[in-house]
Amino acid sequence: MALLGAGVIGGGWAARFLLSGWDVRLHDPDPDAGRKVAAVVENARRAWRSLTLAPLPAEGTLTIAGSLEEAVAGACFVQESAPEREQLKQELLARAEVAAPPDAVFASSTSGLRPSRLQAEMARPERLVVGHPFNPVYLLPLVEVCGGERTAPESCRRAAAVYRSVGMAPLLLRREIDGFVADRLMEAMWREALWMVADDVATASEIDDAIRLGPGLRWSFMGVFLTYRIAGGEAGMRHFLAQFGPALQWPWTRLTDVPELTDELIGRIVEQSDEQASGRSPEELERERDDRLVAVLQALRGAQAGAGAAIRDWERRLLADAAPNGRPVAAGQLLEHRAAVLPEWVDYNGHAHESRYLQVFGDATDALLARLGIDEQYLAGGGSYYTVESHLTHRREARAGDRLLVTTQLLGVDERRLHVFHSLWREPERDLLATAEQMLLHVDTQAGRAARAGDGPLTAARELADLHAGLEWPEAAGRAIHLDG
Amino acid sequence: MALLGAGVIGGGWAARFLLSGWDVRLHDPDPDAGRKVAAVVENARRAWRSLTLAPLPAEGTLTIAGSLEEAVAGACFVQESAPEREQLKQELLARAEVAAPPDAVFASSTSGLRPSRLQAEMARPERLVVGHPFNPVYLLPLVEVCGGERTAPESCRRAAAVYRSVGMAPLLLRREIDGFVADRLMEAMWREALWMVADDVATASEIDDAIRLGPGLRWSFMGVFLTYRIAGGEAGMRHFLAQFGPALQWPWTRLTDVPELTDELIGRIVEQSDEQASGRSPEELERERDDRLVAVLQALRGAQAGAGAAIRDWERRLLADAAPNGRPVAAGQLLEHRAAVLPEWVDYNGHAHESRYLQVFGDATDALLARLGIDEQYLAGGGSYYTVESHLTHRREARAGDRLLVTTQLLGVDERRLHVFHSLWREPERDLLATAEQMLLHVDTQAGRAARAGDGPLTAARELADLHAGLEWPEAAGRAIHLDG
After folding, report:
1. Is B9 helix (H, G, I), strand (E, B) or coil?
2. Strand partners, A418
3. Region for residue A179 given its phi and psi (left: phi exceeds 0; alpha: psi -120 to 50; beta: otherwise)
4. Dihedral, CA atoms, A274, A277, A282, A288, nearest 10 degrees?
């Protein structure tokens, strides 16, 4: 794919596509574009690593192209993120169209210009869509997809598919309007915020607190309509509109006019903004923002709605794409599972908390079960293996960033039980960090009691146990804990 | 304290104050108020339990008063949450003032009426402030505190102190304006959202997605000013204003007018809202909202800014108020540690992931070590206990929300090692869920090798082991894992 423009938005796109395994050719007139984009990618990589345990694909390659034509040659998808000047964008798109393959789709990152205008100079305007992302592009799922008068619906669908492939949640707009949907909402709030500073009602910092300590917490998972529906109580939305509708007519807000950005007002905002930032550099603020976004996205993942659903779907695809699970095992060959130690796993001793070792062992057990055919369908049928006993030994400490390998040996099988032995190694040195011996019991999850495993998993487990029968019995298996040992 | 009004807001106040240990006297003309408030408190209790592991204080007592006068008699703080009618509120406050003690502070929950108007009929208007909270009152930290022309600054300070004591983050407004700060921002966005439905640009569900998948995620921890400062890149706020300021003049939004709520528009919004709710009852939506708020608040707690800082400060106060750690143990008495199963601990089997049991056992071990004198100073001196072996057995599954008790027995001590046995119970039933036998090794953390423990911890450990010497040896201790066992 090709990127035109390497500002904040273009750099964010580069990070998202590269980290998703796409090769990216980028053009920007700024000779320093390569260095700037590399910095954005590095920051984004840090955030992605802490966002998911799913195996990320091998990163794509970034090529800085000397010209627009060189960038788009051979690209099936071109994302334009040039400055917000209509004529400039029109010219870039018209040039790109000539140099790109005939079936390429063109997307503009514009936050306000109409696609009907942007496609005006194109020979084949049906290929142009708006694909409007939000900062930081590599973390926020939203991208507004909007076609112009002459855009083919197929182009919107293809752009949406591309965005989904890099973990985004495209919102297909039903009508072309200036500013699209999200920016109109932001703009409305921003105007009101500017009035409040202009009228000295509140400072930048106070206004931001009014958002993030209150309604902003709700908006991370629930928009205005659902929030107000709940506020209507039992009687719902109609009641809410009847109760609070009339307030819309009150002379509350200053929205009937636009504040003039005088030098005095600009100076005041800049001063209040400096105070609010209290010496933090843009990079520090960006990292803070990204860390908090990752934390919020992870929190919502469990809820499986909104951004949480987008993250979960993305992880499922990453897992499915990685899918090394079905690879056959040779006799005497251990199963392998990989992980990495995240910064938040580290406790006051400076290394991973003991429970995180068991988390990784649990993941390795899940990988074993998946190989035996315990999938969503099997679980839905009411069968599952539960861990009933675990014996961990610790040899060395795992530190933040360590790459981990778990090797798994199936020690024994009966109709209800699996006896498993894991070893946890630091890569690439192959230092042994810990071991876990586990007994798993097959249960009927509806009845809540032990039950014979299904024929499929049982056969697969016996085959694997046979393949592992020739392996040495692990030194740490079958041992008890004794003080006088 | 006294509450006037038991609607959505009044019920939320009742929950927050009761759960914080305040006795509450409430009056509402609705004869069903007691039942409604009890339901809100029950829901709030569920959320608070999953929000923190810190020990919550004993709940206060709710008294439903037969009259306003009976409710406010003897109350040092009166929170009024009657319907949004100026005259009604003026009358209630004037009556309450007569019946309450002379030093009582009166706060109105109004979201739009000016305190200067509300205090108009009061004999001692200096005692009246606005304390405007947000839904759900028991979870969102924000409360806008605003005085009127005749309010004493001391009343604002006293109200803010009361709100802080129940875990809120009061925002003291510098000027009295209709709608205060947060509602003005919400109102601006809401007007724009209504226009988009009226113009058929987007549906309720699409607008909500445009918020929660994009900018709304940021607003949970960062308001508009700091967000835009980052968008300005290296050049900061001045650059952002120069770049995007002119766009304010574009005819983007419909904010220069107010949409008329015709029957047709109301019908359309109600229909789209029903579709969005897809059959979920108000109670279900409330629970979803609360669960996600709890998850987001917990996610931000680590960041220690915005709502995260409010939650952290609240927990510190709860812990300081509880502080039972140093309590001496009697002979034969097990140590106790309490925890609760958080929603995010639950895996695909519907119960807590096995690693979370070890996390709780690890916390119980930390509590044991703290009791032996392993504090920050000891750790800074280069000594610590590391877990070298753990043997877990699982009996029953822990589910989200379960209250857990860990009892800890010190089985043995030598110069370098502690032999520990934990049992994990579900409260209040005292169902045994799991056990953990652990061997801890004292290490010289600088040298990275085993070393004799310091005299203080060693003496304390031997004393505790003596106190536990008479206890029965746990049935699950000293066992090994065997398939043919």
Report:
1. helix
2. A413, A440
3. left
4. -170
How far is A150 from B265, CA to CA, in rounded Å? 30
Distance, in angstroms, between A161 CA and closest chain B CA?
17
Residue A265: band (very low, low, confident or very high) from pLDDT cuts 50, 70, 90? confident
Higher pLDDT, B113 or B257: B113
What is residue B330's predicted lDDT score, i.e. its pLDDT? Answer: 84
ipTM of the complex: 0.77
Can you tell me the mean pLDDT for B300-305? 74
Distances (CA, A) of A287 to A8, A70, A214, A344, B156: 14, 33, 23, 15, 36
Q: For residue A26, what is the enclosing H or E element?
A: strand A24-27
Give tens-digit pLDDT for B236-250: 777 778 776 666 555
Whether B355 has its CB under 8 Å from any CB of chain A: the answer is: yes
- Please tell me the CATH code under which domain A196-279 is placed: 1.10.1040.10
Least confident residue range of A18-27, A158-167, B338-347: B338-347
pLDDT value for A257? 58
Query: What is the biggest distance separating any 2 CA atoms in chain A, rounded to whole angstroms?
Result: 85
Considering chain B, what percentage of its residues have pLDDT values greater than 70?
92
**Widest pairwise Cα distance in chain B:** 84
Q: Which CATH architecture has domain B2-180?
A: 3-Layer(aba) Sandwich (3.40)
Q: Same CATH fold, B183-279 and B2-180? A: no
pTM attached to this predicted model: 0.77
The domain spans of chain B are: 2-180, 183-279, 325-468
> What pLDDT score was predicted for residue B485?
47
DSSP B395-447: -S---TT-EEEEEEEEEEE-SSEEEEEEEEEEETTTEEEEEEEEEEEEEETTT
Q: Alpha-carbon distance B62 to B24, whole Å?
A: 5
Domain at B325-468: CATH code: 3.10.129.10
% of chain B at pLDDT higher than 90: 57
Helix (H, G, I), strand (E, B) or coil at B145: strand
CA B80 to each of CA A124, B113, B136, B178, B293: distance values in angstroms, whole numbers, following the listed order: 64, 13, 16, 18, 25
For residue B253, pLDDT beyond 60? no
- How large is the average pLDDT for residues A356-370? 93
Are A220 and B215 inside 8 Å of each other by CB?
A: no
Beta carbons within 10 angstroms of residue B334's beta carbon: 17
Q: What confidence score (pLDDT) does residue A254 get?
A: 45
Task: Identify the weakest region by mean pLDDT among A87-96, B66-75, B368-377.
Answer: B368-377
Q: Do B214 and A141 touch (CB under 8 A)?
A: yes
Which of B205, B297, B478 faces A482 most closely, judged by CB atoms? B478
- Closest to A392 in 3D by CA, of A438, A359, A430, A425: A438
pLDDT, position A426:
95
Residue A245, pLDDT > 70, answer: no
Q: Contacts by A316-325 with C-beta closer than 8 Å and gap 24+? A: A317/A167, A318/A52, A318/A54, A318/A55, A318/A56, A318/A57, A319/A54, A319/A55, A321/A57, A322/A54, A322/A55, A322/A57, A325/A367, A325/A370, A325/A371
- In CATH, what class is A330-468? alpha beta
* B202/A174 Cβ within 8 A: yes
CA distance B44 to B475: 40
Cβ neighbours of residue B267 closer than 8 Å, sequence gap 6 or more: none
- Give the A window 164-203 contacts with B, CB below 8 Å: 169, 171, 173-175, 177-179, 181-194, 196, 199-202
Is residue B216 over pLDDT 60?
Answer: yes
Q: Does A478 touch chain B (CB under 8 A)?
A: yes
Q: Tell if the CB–CB gap between A394 and B388 is shorter than 8 Å.
A: yes
Fold classification of B183-279 (topology level) = N-(1-d-carboxylethyl)-l-norvaline Dehydrogenase; domain 2 (1.10.1040)
3-state secondary structure of B4: strand
A454 three-state secondary structure: coil
